[in-house]
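Marked as duplicate of an earlier ticket. Keeping the data here for the record.
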Amino acid sequence: MMSPATVSALLPRDFLEPIFDLVVFDEASQMKVEMALPSIARGKQLITIGDEKQMPPSRYFERLAFFAEEEELPESLLQACLNAKGFFKELWLEWYYRGSHESLIAFSNRHFYRDRLIVLPSPNPNDSRVEFVYVNCPSHPNGGCYIEGRGINPCEARAVVRKLLEELSKLENDNFTIGIVAMNDRQQDIIEDLLHRICQESDLNRVKELLGLSGVSLDMFSEEGERSQPLEVSEELIERLEAMMNADRIWVRNLESVQGKEADIVILSMIYGKGRDGKLRQQFRPINREGGERRINVLISRARERMIIVSSMRHTDLRVGEGTPEGVRVLRDFLRYAEEGGRLIGEKESGWFESPFEESVYYCLLDALSDLGVEIIPQVGVGKYRIDLAIKKDGRYLLGIECDGALYHKHRAARERDRIRDECLRRMGWEIYRIWSTAWFDRSLRARVLEEIKSLVLEKLQKRQYMPSHQKQA
């Protein structure tokens, strides 16, 4: 494994006899074509891996250096390969692997990938993994936090660090990572500086002042979000913060440098909002430019477990009209998504039957489980992947039921169909029962299948103390 620059500097340059059988480029959307060519020339075959919906490499300074009439290069190696239709075979990697909950990718899947990603549903659809924290500054006449001339938001930086400390105080061990992403490098610097000052400060009262908790901070601010209890600052908490920062388990990046990074918990600092005059001017710099929506996609797809959006503006603060850049439109939609707790507007968690087999199972289960007070939901999930049937009680799925119906036969590989999918669902907390059509249409076996499903549901109800009273007496 080598970088293109290292390959060019150290490896032989006899391009007539390639030294590699295969050259593979990861993050090809971030690779400039001219940087990649020396490595490509040293191989017999080429594989490029990348996402055209994420950020290309920056050519801002190069555009200043060259004349306007010079021929434009493709924006990235990935784009060059996509342009060369007929020369490369294109494959789509459909499985979403990073996050543990569909709410962490549902927005990107809908707005950027047209629901092509295979996203496994959560057994607890009410489990919110997207949190929105609204920040304003009552100490200023108009409540504005954003300092326009400098492109910074000190109040929001404090809110971000407070949220970080809240998460640290709730988590039981250090077996996790937390990432903070700011919309520009100046806000990143403010957040990093605040973290370092807190770690170096020995006086807890001074730490509270830095965080805006003491009531004497120059820029007091208020937050609206999911806060279970007030933050208690202690020496142990600050020591834990410092230890995790030294171990690189807490990192801070900006919008231009975060691609390729991921963390269990990601806190976003949106920065922009009303200025000290109370006006929001929608000058979001890189978001306003062509392709700005791809930066939003990079920003919101870094989390594995939870995503927390700290913002000084709501989606209703943004005005969208005929000439509004696409990046601003996507930003507005994302803020609305975050305010809704990670729920797509109009998205249904269930669908309709894909085969008469599933429909037959559904109505038989309705009859067999009628005395247990459970719901039976067909086609559970969002996007492309659905669980055929699921048994639900009090907002949580107790059991998923897979039939060898339409979705089962769509998979070309038995390994993906019979093992990988089942393993991933169980890892997310699902218990899956599979019904084979050959057993279902044999009436003697069907009765046994229904009895096994009922026994599993009763076991789940007992564990969660959901069992109806007449069943407990029996």
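See parent ticket for discussion. The longest helix spans residues 443-464.
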